[in-house]
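Database export, one record per block. Field names are fixed; values are copied verbatim from the stored entry.
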Amino acid sequence: MFAMADITRTHAAQRPDKPALICDDRTLTYGELHTESCRVANALLDAGVTPQDRVGFIGKNIPEYFTLSYGAAKLNAVPVAVNWRLAPPEMAFILDNAEAKVVLVEGEFLGHLDKMELPRNPLIIEVGGNGANVSYSEWIEDRSDDDPGYPVAPDDTGSQLYTSGTTGLPKGAELTNRNFEAIMEPISDMIGVTSDSVMLHILPMFHIGGSGVASVGLFNGATNVVHRDVDPGRIFADIPKHKVTASFMVPALLQVLPMIPGASDVDFSSLETIFYGASPITEEALVASMALLKCRHAQAYGLTETTGVVTWLPPEDHDPGGPRTKLLRSAGTPVDGVELRIVDDAGNDQPDGEVGEVWVRTLQNMKGYWRNPDATAEAFPEGRDADGLGWFRTGDAGYMDDGYLFIHDRVKDMIVSGGENIYPAEIENAIISHPGVADVAVIGIPSERWGESPLALIVAAEGADPTQEEVIAHCVERLARFKLPTAVKRIDAIPRNPSGKILKVDLRKPYWEGRDRAVN
């Protein structure tokens, strides 16, 4: 049976001296990654962490994320990587909801702790901090490097990633050992990852495209170059330096790279595959990326709740200007072990070409939302069978054409900006607390750089005259920066149906006219 902890155990035995992680100026071999994660596991044990307890992480892409995650896995505990872009109250909600017993915090984010209320009083471990808490190096210094070797079951949770909900409160998607086992080999084959590969990881580890793809590289015994943050200069330097063969990037980054001075002078000859996802890509950006990087491009579509990729558009379907050009607008075909349905509002299957909600059935589907049975039941409207298989509602609207999935719109109101999911309800809840705002609706509008960006449409309170700057400043202390509205516009009234629901389709329509789909 597959277990996340077996990744370091296997490769420490087979290739102990091979670099597993190259993070800035620190390199960890597979043997060192295994040994240090064992020390972390024993430190967690001493802190009272038991199987299936949650362990929090707030930080960018640093080696300690991996040692904490695999240390927790050796106890059958569950890592919870918190989005470091969130505001302190949002972080606090996640840590409290997850009931985290230990939280590892990178020094840059220690100031957030002063603005948090953590009633469960978790043990705080700091990395590169100011000494106000126990340091990571001291915490593991004298710990045993014996592997605790706790047993795990297929349906035990191996990772908990938080995805925002339409209520404005994040939900913890529980991804199990069985979920990861179902996706590892199919995606490895699609990308072409082997123990000889060198993978570049740029996306944050709180994102399934970050931690999930990094797990694929480690699963295969590849060398993994991990960037703490997105830096095009470092990308250009590290691809030839480490002879990177594959990387997962978001469309916003692929759009920017060809525009950077000197990009065409970089040696990209080691690259074999670039795969992209998390938001749609324009044909122009794709053509420019293919011309610059001169390697195979492939597209992945998936969700946190599906442990990542459920459809794949392979390199042979990337044919700009050729007879298969229309496929560039698709999300590809289902990967092995994935079934798709297109369903209308009444639950009826739709024929090819008819738009409906995309439903997915696969062993990759999450166990459920942590401590949220109602949301889990809503996500699996037809329930699940004895094997745990059931149809998951993605919230995306699309249609099928000759076996290919085309994403058309969103059933929910979610905005995808630069690969980040933003739910209007979160922004609306922040803005409506402004005394000068009587009503508000937030919609996604086209953005050439980010795909979409949030626009706040407000109705001013009687006698008030809130400016755009005032409204955005009001949101700064309440929301992560990537959720801030990029613009605020005054309107006379928010249109609603008889039940009071905002008619966001009507509000979005003027901004998306002339486009063949209502996502960018």
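Remark 1: The chain has a mean pLDDT of 93.
Remark 2: The longest helix spans residues 30-46.
End of record.
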